[in-house]
Amino acid sequence: MKKSLLFLFTLLLGSGLFAQECADLFFSEYVEGAGNNKTLEIYNSTNEAVDLGFYTINRYSNGDPDPTNTMSLSGMIQAHDVVVVTNGQTDSIWVGSYWSVPIDPALYEKGDLHGTGDYPTPMYFNGNDAMTLEKITGEIVDIFGKTGFDPGSNGWNDIAPTYTAGNDYWTSWTKDHTLIRKHSVKEGVKGNPAIFMVNVEWDSIAKDYFDSLGYHSCECGTLGISTNNFKHSVVIYPNPSTGKTITISASERIEFVSVVNELGQVVYSQNFETTSKSFQLSGEFLTSGIYVVTARFVDNSFYVDKLIVR
Length: 310
Description:
single chain, mainly beta, five-stranded antiparallel beta sheet
């Protein structure tokens, strides 16, 4: 709900399944960072506003087959918009043998909803916990991970056959990472998977990177509501790209562009003295990977989107 994007996709895949696609809410971003930097973004894939009061977030901790904690949601989520839910602990708390540190204030500020800040709640999840988005009737509309299964303290990774990190903490995708749901995903995981293969539906970026929160690019549609009253049309193409050149074309003049890689490093940043509505970006820094592109316009509004280079 924090940012605004308008990005239209007309490709409809799998017509036999389309009745189930773009029909409900699902998780679109997952932040499992330092301390209590824990956040989930929820995306509304439908064409209608949805009442969040009919949904809950649930944590299945350390292989628990039943919900360990439940968080009720509230408010409305607009069509193709997102709601950001963060951990709510804003002060350090002594918990017997150590200090539990607060969430990063910058991450908390991005939240539309917050946990209570009192342990335990679902928003104290770790990389080995399964998380679900459920209706208050108990119907699961999305699962992150696998309920009733403990992958070990380092969580899940992208390595067959187990897709669990075990002692190889450096391979983990779900501990100390931010994950973004792939653009092609159009519905949640409603049945507990036999094996949670995180890389199938998620892209992994750097720990404690959360600039992409507040919008989600999806084939179902992308639309955010911005405090900047963003109202321009913007296209980044080709995206995905197989070359070293992309073009940003907009209905307003562009005065600044930055590109950030998966490690959170700024690989390109440029202020333009002569502004234009179209800008071509080219360079050897566009190697295979996922990038976050930010464009600022002369009216001080911003556009942020994900770029994939193959």
